[in-house]
Design goal:
globular, 6-stranded parallel β-sheet, 11 strands, about 25% strand, alpha/beta, binds nicotinamide-adenine-dinucleotide
Length: about 280
Amino acid sequence: MTELKVAIAGAGGRMGAANIRAVVAASGTKLHSAISGIAIHSAFDRPGTDAIGKDAGTYAGIEPLGVIITDDIEAALRGADAIIDFTAPAASVALAQRAAKGGLVHIVGTTGCSAEDDKAIAAAAGAGARIVKAGNFSLGVNLLQGLVKKAAAVLGDDFDIEILEMHHNKKVDAPSGTALMLGQAAAKGRGVDLDTHSARGRDGLTGARKKGDIGFAALRGGTVIGEHAVIFAGDAERIELTHRADNRTIFANGAVRAALWAATQPAGLYDMADVLGFSD
Ligand code: NAD
């Protein structure tokens, strides 16, 4: 493969625009030994959204690219090697199934997927798609995951773990995909199952905190891109591991890196730790 041809899903969205800018910024540079470059092949969104019919570059706030944002998904995917998809769960499941048919790279940043959605995405990876799915594509959060796992293992359940996140007022799912990733890392460090050891949405007469639970709290407001803190609260001491995203470029650059990496991998389901080479 000489150049990775990318279809941008949800091109009219906040992350869609960031992904367009990141692919354009990366194009022309030699990014991987087997791939000489990366380019925007197409951009699409849902019918009826403002972005349809607009130039993808102009819409993303950069120079015109001569790629018109379409609502014809099949036409957009024709000839594409990869899809960068930060959209909505139902769209990501359908795109994973389409990626399986064509053996495409599918980068899934969408959060809020149900267990059923995740199962369908894994099945698509088993049927030929090269999928990288992560609740957070930034280098910093993926490093933080490792630190949280280590801290949870060392500190044990005498320390209460609480995960606090804040995002902008347009976000539709809670807790964030990143908070859940960090919760999984803490649960792994402790050797417990997150599903049976988490406390979400406390309200009213909740009773005392259950020892061993991993707590989640979600704040929403303004234009906050994403802030996460994992708090280990012990007897008379507290450790806090924090990540703050200043802009969406960190996720988009990670998605581009993942697409280039996945293009050289066999079909399967991967996460960002695989891409960055620190999975265990
Ligand atoms: P957004 O609402 O600004 O954009 C989503 C876009 O997807 C919209 O333009 C929408 O019309 C489009 N879309 C929805 N269904 C579609 C379909 N069937 N076909 C084509 N397009 C469709 O939201 P956003 O802030 O860009 O976030 C998008 C997703 O990415 C959310 O799930 C968010 O939590 C997630 N996110 C993930 C990361 C990460 O690193 N994994 C980082 C930031 C955001």
